[in-house]
Amino acid sequence: MINFTLSLNSKNKKIFYILCGFCFVAVVYIITNLMMSTQNGKTNEDRIRFINALEVSVVTVPSEVKTVKIPYEFDDVYINYNNIQKAAGYDLFSFRGKEVVLYTYALKDKDFVADVHLIVFKGEIIGGDICGRAFGSQMLPLSKDSAKFFKKE
User: Fold this and answer.
1) What is the value of pTM for the model shown?
2) Closest CA to 121 of 150, 146, 94, 143
3) What is the DSSP letter of 93?
4) 82: helix, coil or strand?
5) Looking at residue 107, what DSSP letter applies?
6) Which of 139, 95, 147 minimizes the C-alpha distance to 119?
7) Closest CA relative to residue 51, chosen from 149, 151, 147, 148
8) Helix H or strand E segment including 148
9) Closest CA to 112 of 60, 147, 61, 64
10) What would the pLDDT profile of 5-21 be if each residue is shown by its tens digit?
C-alpha cells in the first residue's frame, strides 16, 4: 500500500487553497458554458439553418422582428415559459433584465398555421418556441419532437 502525505506550512496552505478554489471555479465555468451552449443567430441565414435543423420549413423572411426585455422578476407566465425553454435545453433565467431580439418565422406548411419564435441575445439563439396561431394553441419547445407535431406524416 502506498501512502501519500502532503505537508505544507501556513503560507503554502493558503496558496494551495487559493489554487484549489481557482480550479473549482474554472471547472464550474467550463461545465456551465458547455451545458448552455448556444447557437449562432447573428444572420437570417444562421437562424434559418437552425430552424431547418428542427426539420420544419419556414418562410425565409421573418414576419416580425422586435426587441423585448426579459423581466428581472419572473411571474407565473414567465416561469411556465422558461420551463418550455428548459425542455429544449435553454434557460432564460441568466438573461433576466436583458434586452433580446424576438424573431418570428411563419411555417410554410399550408395545413398548419404556426410560427417559430427565436430569442436572440448578442447574436446567439438563447431560446424560443413553436406555436400555432389559433387561440389556445399549445406552445412547444424548440425541438425535433415538437416540430413533428407540425409536420404531415
Assistant:
1) 0.73
2) 94
3) G
4) helix
5) B
6) 95
7) 147
8) helix 144-148
9) 147
10) 666 676 666 665 565 55
